């Protein structure tokens, strides 16, 4: 067994070579894993900022430059599902498309 330290504000998902991704989310503290059989995937569950710049058109056909600052964090209970369906870089894959569409709809409705 080898120790797995999980820092404050982080959570870990355990990948088992025989059973796959386990549904249990490991919290802060020191946990023990079986070498070669289990591999930890550590997620940062603290609120993190992200700036998303968008250039969009308004109703009167003018270009509008908007930068949106988002504070995001994953839902801790859903980390195994997030890892299996999206991956470790979930924020890079999900946030740009969602924020771009929401900002465009807000600009169109406000103008």
Automatic annotation (TrEMBL):
Function of the protein: In the plasma membrane, cooperates with CD86 to mediate CD86-signaling in B lymphocytes that regulates the level of IgG1 produced through the activation of distal signaling intermediates. Upon CD40 engagement, required to activate NF-kappa-B signaling pathway via phospholipase C and protein kinase C activation.
Family: Belongs to the prohibitin family.
Entry keyword Membrane: yes
Chief subcellular location: mitochondrion
Compartment(s) of residence: Mitochondrion inner membrane
Claim: Ribosomal protein is one of the keywords in the record: no
Gene Ontology terms: biological process: DNA biosynthetic process; mitochondrion organization
One Gene Ontology CC term in the entry: mitochondrial inner membrane
PANTHER family given in the database record: PROHIBITIN, PROHIBITIN 1
Band domain residues: 2-111
Record-linked InterPro entries: Band_7 (IPR001107), Prohibitin (IPR000163)
Name of the gene: Phb
Keywords of this entry: DNA synthesis, Membrane, Mitochondrion, Mitochondrion inner membrane
CDD domains on file: SPFH_prohibitin
Record protein name field: Prohibitin
SMART domains documented for this protein: PHB (SM00244)
